Amino acid sequence: MQANMGMAGEFRCVVKRADGSVKLDTGYQKNLILDQGLDYFGSDDTTYSFNSACVVGTGNSIPKVTQTKLDNAVGYAILAGVDDKKDYDVVRDGNLYKTSRQCKYSIKGLDNANITEVGLASRFSSNTNYSLNTRALIKDSNGNPTTITVLSGEQLDIYYKVWRIFDLTDKTGTFNLLDGVGGSVAYNYKTRPAHVGTSSFANLNLDAMGTINSLSLQLATGDLAAVTSAPTGGGSMSNAKTLSPYVLGSYKRVVTLSLSISVANFAIRSMLVSLPFIGTWQVRFGSVADDSPITKTATQTLSIPIEFSWGRYEGAL
């Protein structure tokens, strides 16, 4: 079973004079999420976030997904505040649910620097020691690379939005449920997001999947619900969770949920699983033969593997 998410980003640069008035506002511009940034989410990093710091520089090379540093970093700031977008409107949004976390960074002391490039960083300790996750060249109103001059006494505020985009259409597939003694039963599954538009959908912290202890699971007797709701019946499960090793460049990891003989001993029609980075998903089970649910008894254990994946979203925001 699979759950997938798209990612995109944009930034806005605001230069403020010493008296606090606005000298320049670029408006929001798209940026590139680097391969290194996508790899971050698959890592076991539990110390830093994807957006721990914002770094600015004076380089002008064309952004490439393989870059790992700015051309010439000259300033930085640590995350100072966030503003989350979680709302969903079916008329406005249709089959795409778009959530975002806007991060603010205020950089002082640039002293007549000519800023041309910007990016988000994790594992940050200095202008030369950091892991770059996004990069962009600052552009003018015509879309051409430009320079922002920040004079002595002025401040550069950068607002960075990291977007997560979820396709709300159902995804289907088939798997074989092994009985442990050599037999198997074929089941269909159907996945869709759950709790869309609410705080229950996902914690919007930009943390790596290594924080799997935050994963929650509920097995239910009820059928799939609308994307703004969730299946009913059953209850939260005490379960063991294992995470497959991350392979650089794969942008996916498999979480295996292992249920003991003491839990979920009923007819399992659906499942609700939530992980902060990747959102909340509901899954329906029905046998290929007669659409019956999975039946588990007190003499059986059950293991459920789920592949979570992510990648760049290239559409409109």
Rg over alpha carbons = 23 Å
- Low-confidence runs of at least 5 consecutive residues: none
The backbone outline, from C-alpha atoms, is elongated
Mean pLDDT: 91
Helix coverage percent of residues? under 10%
Number of helices: 2
The biggest beta sheet, please? 14 strands, mixed
Report the order of strands and helices: EEEHEEEHEEEEEEEEEEEEEEEEEE
Distance between the termini: 27 Å
| Helix/sheet category | mainly beta
- The fraction of residues assigned to DSSP E strands is over 45%
SS elements, strand count: 24
Number of domains: 2
Descriptive account of the structure:
The protein is mainly β and 317 residues long. It has two domains: 2-165, no CATH class; 170-310, no CATH class. Helix content is 4%, strand content 47%. It contains two helices and 24 strands. Strands 1, 2, 3, 4, 5, 6, 7, 9, 10, 11, 13, 18, 19 and 24 form a 14-stranded mixed β-sheet that branches. Strands 14-15-22-21-16-17 form a six-stranded antiparallel β-sheet, with no helix packed on it. The protein has a two-stranded antiparallel sheet with strand order 8-12. A hairpin with a 5-residue loop joins strand 1 and strand 2 (22-25). The longest helix is centred in the first third of the chain and has 8 residues, at 35-42. It is elongated and about 70 Å long. The two termini are 27 Å apart. The mean pLDDT is 91.
